[in-house]
Amino acid sequence: MPPLQLHLFLILFLSTSALSCAARTGDDRHHSLPQFREAPQFYNSKSCDSISTIHVAMTLDVAYLRGSVAAIFSVLQHSSCPESIQFHFIASSSISFLNSTIRSTFPSLSFQIYPFDESRVSGLISTSIRKALDRPLNYARSYLPLLLPDSVHKVVYLDSDLVLVDDIARLASTPLPDKVALAAPEYCNANFTSYFTPSFWSNPALSMAFEGRKACYFNTGVMVMDLDKWRVSGFTAQIEEWMELQKRMRIYELGSLPPFLLVFAGRIAAVDHRWNQHGLGGDNYRGLCRNLHPGPVSLLHWSGKGKPWVRIDARRPCPLDALWQPYDLIRRPFSLEDA
């Protein structure tokens, strides 16, 4: 073959190989994204004619999408007025994919996705005891009053690693007294001092932040929020101030929770513990299996390192992961082994 023809042949061969490789890479990316079955349709009961819209807020990303879909499914399945629920999703990337996935999985769902600019908070985040806790989207809940329209006055915030087994309308109807902007289950038997460093408690100028407050631990994965009161009081700015201080001197170790405690602990409306059976993912280091807390259950929350879908896929589920599995809408590829 003459040198010129050989040169052209090599160019054509390399170009074709590159395009083939790119196509395979695109296919691999497509197949790596989660695919879900369409959920059943849920309808309002006759008693829903006069009910107000229930607003529910969640973060949404590809990594936790399987958990988010299960949580949405559980909310709809146990609601007496599912068509009266408006979902507000906060996402920082893959918004087009997330939008189409939610739309195809829940065709009749009333929802809106709001873009979250991670640069708004990334410079304020300090490393914590587990890398997953440092994702900027974990901090998006602090910005809900600024991201959601002013027409949304009250919202139920839910994490992506939980399922409801009760009507969310009961949680949404939690009364919030004057000047109280947040409601959540409190756990006053927990060691509250452990959420902050010794340097925090040894500094009177810092520790006096809790003076006059009966400060108790609460989990930020389930909250009822009065957005109007939050906006008026500027709580987002207060949270950011504590995060800025954390960058200068280490006052806590656990991600987005401590700033919430600094602003709200001892100043929230209490919610029955049945609405957050948390910690089912184990601790933040090992993620060991745990049992339910004593008492009735309206919401199961796999907070902690272990997530039920990960353990199920690894064929090392905890006993309570079986309670999450009925809400899993993941579409699995057919295999001869499953058959």
Automatic annotation (TrEMBL):
Pfam families: Glyco_transf_8. InterPro entries: Glyco_trans_8 (IPR002495), Glycosyltrans_8_dom-fam (IPR050748), Nucleotide-diphossugar_trans (IPR029044). The keyword Ligase does not apply. GO terms for cellular component: Golgi apparatus. Keywords: Glycoprotein, Glycosyltransferase, Membrane, Signal, Signal-anchor, Transferase, Transmembrane, Transmembrane helix. It is a single-pass type II membrane protein. One of its GO terms (molecular function) is glycosyltransferase activity. Pathway: Glycan metabolism; pectin biosynthesis. Belongs to the glycosyltransferase 8 family. This is Hexosyltransferase.
